[in-house]
Specification:
31% strand; disordered C terminus
Length: 413
């Protein structure tokens, strides 16, 4: 009998097989979180024109140099600038133009007096404080000059990046796109979570759980199931969706049962291989590149499917999108006992909290891989080495699913 692969061996097999998706030009509105692969240069100076940084009056600095509350300077108001519409009038000696924040600086003006330092009286304004040259003026090109790089390529685009690209007029950008991931659940007993259950039926929870995990990984889920325990139906579903998705994630059908469709559909090996991995929960897995698209086969039990996705599928999808793994593994202190498997690396859901700066992990699930309620309360997975049971108070390593700040937990990718 072939010995099972270690968790690291199986991970490396997956990472060695998957390839980054080819770059694609996408609308800027769809580019958040995607890795930029092109150099985007500013096509013009930014800001493209000098503008007021305050609500007030555009003036000549020399006209108000002596202004004070005791001896205000009186200027004639000759126009009012509007947003997006320059005043069209030049500021001459002894004159001022009303300007809102962001308005184009009128010709002839080199300073803005804030409205707080002004007293308006009809078509005149009394300036009660000096405004040296360039006061409250946003200069042309003070952010970027034409030809300068807007965003460094090779990193995921953040919200601020999108703003900078939009400001530079980039309606489309070339990125490594989000992977479209077809999600299938196999099992004659599975039904959609609506209506009453028949005898022996269960709701298909895996499809919704895996869709959420796909989104957390930065990819886009595509619902393709559930499917019956029929290998021909499975293969037909894969073929039908081949041009619509970049990868497949299938839960169920990978063990040694006579009706397991993945095992039966790919019994001869080749493109997709069913393997044993030294992991608990969920020892049986399947992986391969079928017609150029990665196929990830997970166990059907929810906890096993969840763990298998986090440990194996997520890194593969992130590699496809040229993204780092981005799941921190940190030290914590156990607040409960967890048993070990003699030969498998075990993952136990745990709830995290901080106490006096120490991260505490409380186990949330039993040993059975079909249990999901405890998983819903978990913020992390405790790694339990083979043959090494952990007891309350011991240090442990956890894979963080959601971050912890103070006593609060926040979701993060």
């Amino acid at each position: 009998m072939t010995p099972p692969l270690t968790v690291d061996e199986y991970c490396q097999r997956i990472l060695a097989a998957v390839r980054p998706l080819p770059p694609r030009s996408v609308p800027l509105s769809e580019a958040f979180g995607c890795v930029l692969v092109e150099r985007v240069e500013a096509p013009f100076d930014f800001p493209p024109f000098a503008s007021s940084a305050m609500d007030g009056f555009a003036v000549r600095a020399e006209d108000v140099a002596s202004a004070s509350k005791e001896a205000p300077v009186r200027l004639a108001i000759v126009a009012e600038a509007l947003m997006g519409k320059p005043a069209g009038v030049r500021v001459g000696k002894g004159e001022a133009i009303v300007v809102p924040t962001g308005a184009v600086m009128p010709e002839g003006a080199d300073s803005v007096v804030p409205i707080e330092d002004c007293i308006r009286r009809g078509d005149q304004v009394l300036v009660t404080a000096p405004a040296p040259k360039d006061s409250h003026v946003r200069s042309t090109g003070e952010d970027l000059n034409a030809g300068e790089m807007v965003i460094e390529p090779g990193r995921p685009l953040s919200a601020a990046d999108l703003g900078a690209l939009a400001a530079a007029g980039a309606a489309q950008v070339t990125v490594v796109p989000r992977a479209r991931v077809g999600i299938l659940s196999t099992g004659d007993e599975l039904v959609r979570p609506a209506g009453a259950l028949g005898a022996g039926q269960i709701y298909d929870s895996n499809a919704f759980m895996l869709a959420g995990q796909v989104r957390e990984a930065g990819a886009e889920p595509v619902d393709l199931g559930p499917l019956p325990d029929d290998p021909d139906v499975l293969v037909s579903a894969l073929d039908a969706a081949h041009n619509e998705v970049d990868a497949f994630v299938c839960s169920g059908g990978v063990s040694a049962g006579e009706n397991d469709p993945v095992k039966r559909a790919f019994a001869s090996g080749g493109e997709i291989c069913c393997v044993d991995v030294a992991i608990q929960p969920g020892r049986p897995h399947a992986f391969g590149i079928r017609r150029g698209k990665p196929f990830f086969g997970l166990p059907g039990n929810p906890l096993a499917a969840f763990v298998g996705f986090e440990v194996f599928v997520r890194p593969g999808l992130r590699r496809m999108m040229s993204l780092d793994e981005h799941r921190p593994a940190v030290a914590a202190t156990l607040d409960g006992d967890v048993g070990a498997h003699p030969a498998n690396l075990r993952f136990v859901p745990a709830r995290l909290r901080r106490e006096a700066g120490t991260l505490i992990a409380t186990p949330q699930a039993g040993r059975r891989s079909n249990l999901i309620a405890g998983l819903a309360r978990a913020d992390a997975l405790v790694e339990v080495p083979p043959g090494s049971a952990l007891t309350a108070g011991m240090a442990c390593r956890v894979r963080v699913l959601r971050g912890v700040s103070g006593n609060q937990v926040f979701t993060g990718a």
